[in-house]
Amino acid sequence: xxxxxxxxxxxEEDESYGTGLLVNAGAxxxxxxxGYLLDREDSGAAEEVVEEFAEERGRDEAxxxxxAALANAGMECxxxxxx
Length: 83
Ligand SMILES: [Zn+2]
Fold this sequence. Notes:
Blueprint: H1 3-25, E1 28-30, E2 37-39, H2 43-57, H3 59-71
Helix pairs in contact: 1-2, 1-3, 2-3
The chain binds zinc ion.
């Protein structure tokens, strides 16, 4: 009872945490106007995030989280088509 909901919340927290790390590392950024997450295609920066995350969660989970966070990022903002 309630277990599934808790798991989903944890998953969402993990994703936003991964997203925040990507933005901090410069692997992704948010459109200043619309807030959409944009992939900056900086695989070096993404790799740094994996390394940092891996210390906490382990390599496999770190790679999965970073991949999931980048999957949410677009190449350009759907609101203003800026990159
Ligand atoms: Zn925009």
